[in-house]
Design a protein that fits this description.
alpha+beta; Alpha-Beta Plaits; 5-stranded antiparallel beta sheet; 29% helix; elongated; MoaC_bact/euk
Length: 161
Amino acid sequence: MNDELTHFSSAGRARMVDVSNKPDTQRVAVASGIIRMQPETLARIREGRIAKGDVLAVADVAAVMAAKRTPDIIPMCHSLPLTGVEVSFSETADSAGLRVEVIAKCVGQTGVEMEALTAASTALLTVYDMCKAMDRGMRIESIQLEEKRGGKSGIWRRGEA
């Protein structure tokens, strides 16, 4: 673990990290999150009975769009040539919500963690937006990085030392 905060200059000012001396490598990041909801809301999503349309199809597209636009909303994030974004949804084990998992990939000089996290967040926000008329109490939680691969630091997985 690096204790240095790289997004601050020696004078304490925010900066975009200079990655020009880093080699291009294959980068992969996996992020996930959960949205909790009423059982009836989940049933209506599953059955395609939400008035605004196919919730998961729209959330999938929203996630990809968000990954591509991450540098527009995260100030110190680099623009990356994404090579792939995969989005998948599954019901939570307790059937009280949906879990999203996003895999973002690129070949570049810096990682794609922010793209994966932004995509997961946006997917869940889209589910909320499409279902809020029937369930305003939905709760988004546990947005987190699960894994990252590539670059000098190699592989990191949640739960491993």
